[in-house]
Amino acid sequence: MNVVYISIGIVISLWIFGNLHRRRKRRGKIIHVVENHCTGCRRCIKRCTRSVLEMIEDETGIHATVKYPGKCTACGDCLGKCKFNALKLIER
Ligand code: SF4
Ligand code: SF4
Fold it and tell me: Strand 61-66 and strand 87-91: pairing?
Protein backbone atom coordinates (compact mmCIF):
# COMPACT_ATOMS: atom_id res chain seq x y z
CA MET A 1 0.00 0.00 0.00
CA ASN A 2 2.89 2.37 0.80
CA VAL A 3 4.23 1.85 -2.72
CA VAL A 4 0.93 3.13 -4.13
CA TYR A 5 1.04 6.27 -1.97
CA ILE A 6 4.69 6.91 -2.86
CA SER A 7 3.95 6.47 -6.58
CA ILE A 8 0.99 8.84 -6.41
CA GLY A 9 3.16 11.37 -4.52
CA ILE A 10 5.89 11.17 -7.17
CA VAL A 11 3.40 11.64 -10.02
CA ILE A 12 1.78 14.66 -8.31
CA SER A 13 5.19 16.19 -7.52
CA LEU A 14 6.35 15.79 -11.13
CA TRP A 15 3.13 17.37 -12.37
CA ILE A 16 3.50 20.37 -10.01
CA PHE A 17 7.19 20.92 -10.85
CA GLY A 18 6.47 20.54 -14.58
CA ASN A 19 3.76 23.21 -14.39
CA LEU A 20 5.98 25.58 -12.40
CA HIS A 21 8.80 25.09 -14.89
CA ARG A 22 6.51 25.76 -17.88
CA ARG A 23 5.06 28.84 -16.18
CA ARG A 24 8.53 30.26 -15.46
CA LYS A 25 9.63 29.68 -19.07
CA ARG A 26 6.58 31.55 -20.37
CA ARG A 27 6.85 34.54 -18.05
CA GLY A 28 7.31 37.75 -20.04
CA LYS A 29 6.16 36.15 -23.30
CA ILE A 30 3.23 36.79 -25.56
CA ILE A 31 1.62 35.13 -28.56
CA HIS A 32 2.58 36.35 -32.03
CA VAL A 33 0.85 35.59 -35.35
CA VAL A 34 3.07 35.02 -38.40
CA GLU A 35 0.56 36.53 -40.78
CA ASN A 36 1.88 35.08 -44.05
CA HIS A 37 1.59 31.54 -42.60
CA CYS A 38 -1.96 32.01 -41.33
CA THR A 39 -4.75 30.46 -43.39
CA GLY A 40 -7.55 31.96 -41.31
CA CYS A 41 -8.82 28.58 -40.11
CA ARG A 42 -9.88 30.07 -36.71
CA ARG A 43 -8.77 27.06 -34.67
CA CYS A 44 -6.62 29.22 -32.39
CA ILE A 45 -9.43 31.71 -31.83
CA LYS A 46 -11.80 28.95 -30.73
CA ARG A 47 -9.16 27.55 -28.37
CA CYS A 48 -8.20 30.76 -26.56
CA THR A 49 -10.49 31.08 -23.55
CA ARG A 50 -9.25 34.63 -22.91
CA SER A 51 -10.39 35.95 -26.32
CA VAL A 52 -6.94 37.38 -27.09
CA LEU A 53 -7.07 36.60 -30.80
CA GLU A 54 -9.36 37.92 -33.48
CA MET A 55 -9.76 37.48 -37.22
CA ILE A 56 -9.11 40.52 -39.43
CA GLU A 57 -9.05 41.20 -43.13
CA ASP A 58 -6.49 43.59 -44.58
CA GLU A 59 -4.38 43.97 -47.71
CA THR A 60 -2.62 40.64 -46.95
CA GLY A 61 -5.93 38.76 -46.70
CA ILE A 62 -7.84 37.19 -43.80
CA HIS A 63 -5.71 36.17 -40.84
CA ALA A 64 -5.67 35.97 -37.05
CA THR A 65 -4.27 38.89 -35.09
CA VAL A 66 -3.47 39.61 -31.44
CA LYS A 67 -6.33 41.95 -30.54
CA TYR A 68 -5.84 42.09 -26.75
CA PRO A 69 -2.14 41.50 -26.00
CA GLY A 70 -2.59 42.45 -22.34
CA LYS A 71 -4.88 39.45 -21.82
CA CYS A 72 -2.44 36.84 -23.16
CA THR A 73 -1.00 34.65 -20.40
CA ALA A 74 1.31 32.82 -22.84
CA CYS A 75 -0.38 29.59 -21.78
CA GLY A 76 0.41 28.09 -25.20
CA ASP A 77 -3.00 26.42 -25.59
CA CYS A 78 -3.49 27.92 -29.04
CA LEU A 79 -0.07 26.80 -30.31
CA GLY A 80 -1.08 23.17 -30.57
CA LYS A 81 -4.16 24.06 -32.59
CA CYS A 82 -2.26 25.75 -35.41
CA LYS A 83 -1.29 23.28 -38.13
CA PHE A 84 0.42 25.96 -40.22
CA ASN A 85 3.22 27.08 -37.88
CA ALA A 86 1.65 30.53 -37.74
CA LEU A 87 1.82 31.04 -33.97
CA LYS A 88 4.89 31.65 -31.83
CA LEU A 89 5.55 32.76 -28.27
CA ILE A 90 7.86 35.77 -28.33
CA GLU A 91 9.30 38.12 -25.69
CA ARG A 92 6.94 40.96 -24.72
S1 SF4 B 1 -1.10 31.78 -25.46
FE2 SF4 B 1 -2.98 31.27 -24.28
S3 SF4 B 1 -3.83 33.27 -23.65
FE4 SF4 B 1 -2.32 33.67 -25.28
S5 SF4 B 1 -3.55 33.72 -27.20
FE6 SF4 B 1 -2.80 31.60 -26.94
S7 SF4 B 1 -4.45 30.50 -25.83
FE8 SF4 B 1 -4.81 32.72 -25.61
S1 SF4 C 1 -4.78 28.26 -36.07
FE2 SF4 C 1 -3.00 29.10 -37.22
S3 SF4 C 1 -3.68 29.18 -39.36
FE4 SF4 C 1 -5.54 28.94 -38.10
S5 SF4 C 1 -6.28 31.07 -37.75
FE6 SF4 C 1 -4.92 30.51 -36.01
S7 SF4 C 1 -2.88 31.27 -36.60
FE8 SF4 C 1 -4.13 31.19 -38.47
Answer: unpaired
